[in-house]
Amino acid sequence: MDVKPIKIRGRLKGGKASVKCLMPHPMETGVRKDLDGNKIPAHFIETVTCTKNGEVFIAADWGASVSKDPYFGFVVADAKEGDVIEVRWEDNLGNTSSGDITL
């Protein structure tokens, strides 16, 4: 798979950072069929981890029900200018991708 980096943007306001991520991924459920009637193998993001300055603050388990190219947004409390926010995913085939932003 051609793994693309996570597109990430953030905005700091009043000690809170609003972070928005776009994660390019096919997110195949494993139940769809191709034009020849063959099942398309499952391929989806299993885990998402978000860190602030290297400390994990979100660790999420995802499944096949998440849509293709998922959008993921969250708010980081107690954020300040210069904080580094990193978002990383790993899929069921062992592929990984990440993106980061300095507020």
Concise account of the structure shown:
This protein has strands spanning 7-13, 16-22, 45-52, 55-61, 71-76, 84-91, 96-102.
Distance between the termini: 31 Å
Helix content: under 10%
Number of domains: 1
Largest sheet: 4 strands, antiparallel
Instruction: Determine and state the CATH class.
Output: Mainly Beta
The helix/strand order is: EEEEEEE
Estimated share of beta-strand residues: over 45%
Spatial order of the strands forming the largest sheet:
4-3-6-7
CATH fold node name: Immunoglobulin-like
| Fourth-level CATH superfamily | Immunoglobulins
**General form:** elongated
Q: Report the C-alpha radius of gyration, rounded.
A: 15 Å
Number of strands: 7
Keywords:
single chain, 103 residues, mainly beta, Immunoglobulin-like, 4-stranded antiparallel β-sheet, 3-stranded antiparallel β-sheet, 7 strands, elongated
Structure in words:
It comes from Congregibacter litoralis KT71. Helix content is 0%, strand content 49%. The chain is mainly β. It has one domain: Immunoglobulin-like (Sandwich), CATH 2.60.40.
